[in-house]
Write a structure and sequence with these properties.
By secondary structure, the protein is of the alpha+beta class. It contains 35 helices and 34 strands.
Length: 925
Amino acid sequence: MTTQKTLGFDFDQPTKTNSDKVVCLGMTFENDEERRNYFTEKLREKLQDPEFRKIEGFPIGSDESILALSDPPYYTACPNPWIADFIKEWESQKPEKPADYKYHREPFAADVSEGKNDPIYNAHSYHTKVPHKAIMRYILHYTEPGDIVFDGFCGTGMTGVAAQMCGDRSVVESLGYQVKPDGTIMQQETDDEGKTHWMPFSKLGVRRTVLNDLSPAATFIAYNYNTPVDVKAFEREAKRILKEVENECGWMYETKHSDGQIGKINYTVWSDVFVCPECAGEVVFWEAAVDKEAGSVNDEFPCPQCSAKLTKRNMDRAWVTKYDSAINETIRQAKQVPVLINYSVGGKRFEKKPDEFDFALIDKIENSEIPYWFPTTKIPKGDKTGEPLRIGITNVHHFYTKRNLWVLGAIVNRCSNLHKLVFQSIVATLASLLVRYNMGKRGNGPLNGTLYISSMIAESNILRVFQGKVNDFAKAFVSSNRSIISNQSFTKLSIESSSFDYLFIDPPFGSNLMYSELNFIWESWLKIWTNNKSEAIENKSQGKTLGDYRVLMTECYKEAYRVLKPGRWMTVEFSNTNASVWNSIQAALTEAGFIVANISALDKKQGSFNAVTNTTSVKQDLVISAYKPNGGFEKRFQKEAPTEEGVWDFVRTHLDYLPVIKSQGALLQMVPERDPRILFDQMVAYYVRNGYPVPISSQEFQIGLSQSFIERDGMYFLPEQAAEYDRKKMTKQIFQAKLFVSDEASSIQWLRQLLKEKPQTFQDINPLFMQELGGWSKNEQQLDLRELLNQNFLCYDGKSEVPSQIHSYLSTNWPEMRNLTKEDPKLVTKAKDRWYVPDPNKAGDLEKLRERSLLKEFEEYKQAKKKLKVFRLEAVRAGFKKAWQERDYATIISVAEKIPNNVLEEDPKLLMWYDQAVTRMGSGS
């Protein structure tokens, strides 16, 4: 890759002088090797300090293993002690801002779609990965060249790659942007007349990055992706390694063609062997169950000896017992035999059954000792390790055939850390027993996110796989700058407060993936393992529940909040279909102090997305945009919190952070965060998190909102925002998302949307409402439509003048109703018995009546002796809120224990009250 020109200043690290000397952290070295040696000794000294090793998440490994993997001060396979030094240096290098400069960004509200078909993305697989081009869009939006970006769950380091690519003109332009000669980045926007124009929104230039992960495997991959590489030298060294190993071990992948020629094995298929329950004869699964012509596996098949009908479930495995010299133990493992060899001769591919030559070759290898080191670490019990342990795979080296283990040992013995990356990219996946045979179709490979060993595995030719990965990485090494990388827990970072300009994180999500278990094979080859004490997951083997996950994630987000600069943004990529996990993430964000301003979709080209209609059915990857309030507001809030002015100061500040518009093609979408109910919930959450009673009721909030701010289409704006919304609205149609009715709250919201558009009678509403009731929550007490209407809406009785909402609707849709007074008998007759949404002043009285009704029901829940199976969720919410105001935390906890745990975990409001009550009770306040 050619060196990219960036704006502002030189971003290269380390800096090379004309005499090839290297400058790093203000020190000059004769060359990069001297730099590495100097800082390695400094790290060695640091490792002698017992307090340093007590840092949360310090990985498990010897000093020598940590030093061997590290490249200090840029990358340490342990907590990085030089991060503060880099941040100080980077801050000093930033261009000086004008005196009147004020940072302000709306949240990035557009949905993002980026494919994974990219050399950088594909070179090294990982359990979860956001394409770097998707991350680039967020970094370009929220930052400027030289800004410092942090990713606390960095995985393979795609955030670092993205930050670097923000300085590459061609990559930025590939995202659909234009780049001017001066580095100004332009994006297309539609003006008030519907015409598209190119408008400036960012600047070309590298952003600095600090990357962190709990996993040594992850940080090692991230380091290599984010370090400058001499690609030609890399390829030369790889060819040398391959040539040496080919000369030594190439015979292991030889087979004989039908004419006697020696061919090269591409892969060998191994099959499970079972025992027939009828005749006790051995059944080779490949021979009995596989339809070779159709390329499929039969669920039911006959025993080749006795013709009994068999399935995998009604057979026991055949086992072999053998001595394992690597661990000096006799082991018992599920039996597998070679059944098919795919090989090449003269550039053509063939397939054959193993013959005497092949069996003799395998026996020769099995009876030899491997002359290289390989890991024999015992596999720990875990939620995902049960599958291999069940079939006798008890140690890491058991994940390989002896042939492949030998070749892997020969390769890794010759690898530098850079080439060890290529090795790592194949060792836990393409080289192990996890590779499933894909019935001759392209792409033998493992089942992602598992340690599942199939009944038919494909043993690859490691030399060919390694060569293929060398070619992949030669295209993927694009870094011209370095990221700073640390290996520790996100729950307690060794980083100063307010250090970062922007955070992008893709955190673990509940029980989705067991990272430390899945990374165990990789890390055993590196000789450093994840310290999973602070791993933020749900895991039965570790004794971690959803509650523990939420606590750990809250600690992570509190650290994120601490290290982020005030007034700046964090983007959280969310990928989980479990509503309780979604609510745990939101609860953790709120508890940490972040305020969510927008939620959008991220399409990683893994299938189509459906619109999100409620929090109990998250069907897509979501991107949460949250901000840390600026210091000025936080200081004001401490003084204003007990007063109503604190409420309106919060709302003004929050509205300024929200997107003014959201577009979907030519349609103008609703911005749900501007809905009065969501604004109220955000305000309440902020007060509760800070330990203050809320000084205003819901009805008072509604009235004050309508008096202090500008309403458009059910959303509230600041004056200048309303003007912008009005301009955009002239060129676009309003898109109203369909609501999914599942409980009392969503029913009220659905009715509000229906009646706001069209005031109508009970007879009109009822059939429409009944159609929406298919997905009512099982624990939610289902209310009659009349009760919902009576408690939340008004019905015109024909005894006074026609309300403005009904008058407006009728005069718009019936020409004969126009120009009639509100007392006209014709208008009164047409309007009578229609339900409508009350204006805020009258809604306040309704709200009080409804609240009294809800609290009356809550009193019954308080007195209940048994668990509550069916109840009004709205009553519990109202009761929790009142108890909080009265500092009656015991009542919140008591009632919470009576309702099903899943209901509590899937409701963000209840979860907030409950968590806060537990915290306050624990602190004795």
